[in-house]
Amino acid sequence: MEVLYTTTIDSPVGPLFLAASATGLVALEFDRRLPGQPSIRPNPRDVRRENTNARAQKVRFQFEDSPDRMQPYVSELQEYFAARRHAFSFPLDLRGTDFQLACWRALLAIPYGETRTYADIARAVKKCSAFRAVGMANNRNPIAIVVPCHRVIASDGSLCGYGGGLEVKRKLLELEGALTAVLAA
How far apart are CA 66 and CA 69, in angstroms? Predict the structure, then answer.
């Protein structure tokens, strides 16, 4: 069973749960998930059902609360929320299908303060008509904020679909100075 080091921090967009392996950050999740939003951890609001699912799937992780080990991640996130950091330097341990990984790498290439459409990401991964599949890959993004799926907008320039909710997406884009550009389009 793999050990993941964890911590939960307060942020301007609400509590954030972080988990890291020995290799890098595995998850950054909003405390409040939308229905159907995937999570690496059991939902404390419905522990009985999730524990049943965990037993059926065989428990894959052992979580160890470790604020000290998680401090490098926390520090960079605090700098980001203070508008003093535009790129993260800590290692990531992304886990997904080849298509998901390609989409998430394309998200990582979106500069701070800029946005792209789902169609732009589909073109970046050389699957031009797969914008809906790109949307599903974004939905499965395990490392919110750091893998910036909040920077992806609809082709008409509107904000759409975000695991943390549209208000959080709006706040993140506003923090990065990208919201003005989106609204001006």
Answer: 5
SS3 content of the chain, % helix, strand, coil (to 5): 40, 15, 45
β-strand pairing of 61-65 with 16-20: unpaired
The amino acid present at 160, given as its one-letter code, is: C
Q: Which domains does the chain have, with CATH numbers?
A: 2-81 (no CATH), 98-184 (1.10.10.10)
Secondary structure (3-state) at 90: coil
pLDDT tens-digit map of 95-139: 999 999 999 999 999 999 999 999 999 999 999 888 889 999 999
pTM to 2 decimal places: 0.86
3-state secondary structure of 162: coil
**Residues with catalytic roles:** 149
User: What distance in Å separates the CA atoms of residue 37 and residue 19, rounded to the nearest whole number?
Assistant: 17
How many residues in the chain? 185
Predicted confidence at residue 57, as pLDDT, reads: 44
Report the distance separating Cα 168 and Cα 2, nearest Å.
31
Helix 98-108 vs helix 131-139: crossing angle, to nearest 10: 80
Q: Within 10 A of 87 (CB to CB), how many other CB atoms are there?
A: 10
Res 61: pLDDT: 86
pLDDT at 133: 92
Chain centroid to Cα 82, Å, comes to 19
